[in-house]
Amino acid sequence: MISQNLFREAVQRGYTNVQLAGFDIEKPDLIDMLEVESLTSEEIFANQPVVEFSKCRFCGVCSGYCVNKAIQFNRFVPSVTLIVARCCACGNCQKACNRNGIQMKEKYVGKIVQGNLVQHHLIAGELDPESEFQVPLIKALLERLSPESICICDFGPGTDLPVSLALEQMDVAIFVLQNTPDWEQHLKAMITLTEKCNILSGLVINKSEENSSFSVEVSEYCNLNSFPIWGVIPDFGDLENNKDFDNTFNPEVATLPVSKIWNSITQSHPILQLAYNETFTQY
Questions:
Q1: 216-268, pLDDT tens digit by residue?
Q2: Which residue ranges make up each domain of the chain?
Q3: DSSP string covering 194-253, please?
Q4: Which segments within 76-160 are labelled E, that is strand?
Q5: Would you say 281 and 174 are in contact if contact means Cβ atoms under 8 Å apart?
Q6: How many other C-beta atoms are found inside a 10 Å radius of the C-beta of residue 131?
């Protein structure tokens, strides 16, 4: 919801080339929530390594060449295991194997859907429900982002490898934090990740009120750690999942502080007041 309203905010402020991108590939709900014109779909395939155990001597060389630690080697109980969710299909493992024990086989990983929202553009990935081969689909999405656009990217929760790889290509990250028992742990992980990627980041407290005990606790934590809070979003219940939800015309959500969030971002990243080619992400 926040990414959609930031998209609307950018359009209303007069940016002429805005792209809304859905990186939550396991839950691609952006397409269902918005009226998209001229919808097109593109299937994405990638080469996945397959170990031929009849040729494998369990030397472990392949795991040493795996950039994302997708190949796990156990020397005590000789075994080689591929963690598909971490595989980027680079082929390094195949090149490292001198016994021809790894073959690259083409796999369907999902699809990319694109469409127009008036003169603006929507793009979203949808992972094959039977696949965990996420990284190639994320990379395909990144390749299709428009360099001339302000790209507002919607991410799923967490700080796993697909998120971290995509985040490296972003300029600004908005953390959306809700009241859960482990909120502090999640916030620490997100801050660590964006510091590693060396990008600007700030926090939006979701489904809360500014004076609630949770918001006060988070504010105290952020003050101690010099981390900015860019906005607080009230809880609208099931209303935000309604396809017809539109804060522009619905008086119940007229106070949605999207403008405040946008102003906080541009004040922290002043080049956005003039430039049209910066990339944003929300996850």
A1: 999 999 999 999 999 888 876 654 444 444 444 344 443 457 888 888 888 77
A2: 2-17+146-282, 46-107
A3: HHHHT-EEEEEEES--TTSHHHHHHHHHHHHTT--EEEEE---GGGGG-TT--TTT-GGG
A4: 79-82, 102-117, 120-127, 150-154
A5: yes
A6: 17
Measure CA of the first residue to CA of the last residue in the chain; give whole Å: 11
Query: Of 156 and 255, which is predicted with more confidence?
Result: 156
Contact 281, 173 (CB under 8 A): yes
2-17+146-282 belongs to which homologous superfamily?
A: P-loop containing nucleotide triphosphate hydrolases (3.40.50.300)
How much is the average pLDDT of 38-44? 91
Q: Domain 46-107 is of which CATH architecture?
A: 2-Layer Sandwich (3.30)
Cβ atoms of 2 and 206 within 8 Å: the answer is yes
CB atoms within 10 A of CB 66: 21
